[in-house]
Design brief:
2 domains; 6-stranded antiparallel β-sheet; 23 strands; 7-stranded antiparallel β-sheet; globular; Rossmann fold; alpha+beta; Glutamine Phosphoribosylpyrophosphate, subunit 1, domain 1; 478 residues; 28% helix
């Protein structure tokens, strides 16, 4: 992970699935995963069904590094059904055994699974399964679901999967392939996203609508919280095997994770981020010469801020998109240099000017400090930071890689203290109410509006399991 990205939230992964009438499912899955590359860059994989057997192809790196249409490996993946997965970049050791989708042989036949989310009771379940004789091949919580399916005595694979999911707690969006069926399911709170699309001769499941767009699928709807859809040659069926609990969709999808051109839970991501910027300007406007986004995630909010405040928008920071994991550095000097290799000040835009920097969030504060310093070295007379999310005060346990609470700078410093720490002339975050207003809830965050999961800002966790967390060494949400 680069020095810049280590101070940002990291989404755990993307999932994709397709069922069609011809043998193009593997190509469509590669395209879908390419569109969802922003959700995970460490590794990618797919499992396809050729009418006889499920076959897997996995590898480290980006989708384009692994799924080339002109290779014998891809030709061998031809089939009418496939699922895929992008794994996010982790600070820990990369291991091939953790690359999804997982494919295994169970009593009823082959079973493949890809997962986005995190099981918060993973430690307890894993310990119980190991004590009962289960042999784990990976360090991910996803494998727990497979063992629970394997141990179920229900008659059908769907019933086995349902029974397994009844035992887990936390957040999940799953795509599964078995018995010539493609299955998609979301947890009862709908914390992680999953959408349904329609092809002329089949269906698509994806983490975001941009995954539908690239394959020419028409968006049908979001898979609902607690819903399971089964797609086969006869069409699609839906069931809701879990108790209704009300949606708690992850609010950070709007702030940072989702691609700007996606539509999630009925709201356009780009428009929402732009509106967050407008709310920021209303709440914490200040006189300045130019509004500068921290690329790339700060751009829509910066556009909204500039439009509302009547201040020119300009690109005061230029991002090099071709810096990857090669440039990990073990020393502080090396890490600082990595930031400069990925982001550089556009001196002509900021020199001699008062600058408002717009970013999506502040996690540890280390990157913000370096960006502010970069602006001052480029000649900015003042640097004011405005953040398009409320202060991050609590870690996420539902599929987002976040530091422990004591590493989150906003958990122990107020805005003025953070401003002094990062060297900014001022710092303001959008309020909780401003964030909700940007999403169309005119009264802000209150009990009458549909509540989302905003635990990272509020500490209000929708699912609580004391003592588990990640103490078992199981990697979260993969």
């Amino acid at each position: 992970m680069s020095a810049f990205n280590e101070d940002q939230f990291n989404e755990e992964c993307a999932v994709f699935g397709v069922f069609t009438s011809d043998n193009s499912a593997h190509h469509l899955t590669a395209l879908g995963l390419h569109a969802l590359q922003h959700r995970g860059q460490e590794a990618t994989g797919m499992v396809s069904f050729n009418g006889t057997s499920l076959n897997a192809l996995r590898g480290f790196g980006h989708v384009g590094d692994n799924f080339n249409a002109d290779t014998a490996e891809m030709d061998a993946m031809a089939g009418h059904m496939a699922i895929g997965h992008n794994r996010y970049s982790t600070t820990g050791l990369s291991e091939y055994r953790n690359i999804q989708p997982f494919l295994t042989e169970l009593a009823f036949g082959q079973f493949a699974l890809a997962h986005n989310g995190n099981l918060i009771n993973a430690a307890r379940l894993r310990a119980s399964l190991v004590s009962a004789g289960s042999l784990f091949q990976s360090t991910t919580d996803t494998e727990i679901i497979i063992h629970l399916v394997a141990r179920s005595h229900r008659k059908t694979p769907i019933d086995r999967l349902t029974e397994a999911l009844m035992q887990i707690e936390g957040a999940y969006a799953l795509v599964c392939a078995f018995d010539n069926q493609l299955v998609g399911v979301r947890d009862p709170l709908g914390i992680r996203p999953l959408v349904l699309g329609k092809l002329e001769d089949g269906y698509v499941l994806a983490s975001e609508t941009c995954g539908l767009d690239i394959v020419g699928a028409e968006f049908v709807r979001d898979i609902e919280p607690g819903e399971m859809v089964v797609i086969d040659g006869e069409g699609i069926t839906s069931s809701r095997p879990f108790s209704e609990t009300g949606s708690r969709f992850c609010v950070f999808e709007y702030v940072y994770f989702a691609r700007p051109d996606s539509v999630v839970e009925g709201r356009g991501v780009y428009a929402t981020r732009k509106q967050i910027g407008k709310e920021l300007a209303k709440e914490s406007g200040i006189k300045a010469d130019v509004v500068v986004p921290v690329p790339d995630s700060g751009v829509p909010a910066a556009l909204g801020y500039a439009e509302e405040a009547g201040i020119p928008f300009d690109l005061g920071i230029i991002r090099n998109h071709y810096i990857g994991r090669t440039f990990i550095q073990p020393t502080q000097a090396g890490r600082t240099q990595s930031v400069r290799m990925k982001h550089n000040a556009n001196i002509a835009t900021v020199k001699g000017k008062s600058v408002i920097l717009i970013d999506d969030s502040i996690v540890r504060g280390t990157t913000s400090r370096k960006i502010v310093s970069m602006m001052r070295e480029a000649g900015a007379t003042q640097v004011h930071m405005r953040i398009a999310s409320p202060p991050t005060i609590s870690p996420c346990y539902y599929g987002v890689d976040t530091p422990d609470k004591d590493k989150l700078i906003a958990s122990y410093m107020n805005a003025d203290e953070i401003a002094a720490e990062i060297g900014a002339d001022s710092l303001s975050f959008v309020s909780d109410d401003g964030l909700y207003r940007a999403m169309g809830f005119t009264e802000g965050r209150n009990s009458s509006c549909p509540q989302m999961c905003d635990a990272c800002f509020s500490g209000d966790y929708p699912v609580k399991t004391a003592g588990d967390r990640f103490s078992s060494g199981v990697k979260n949400g993969e």
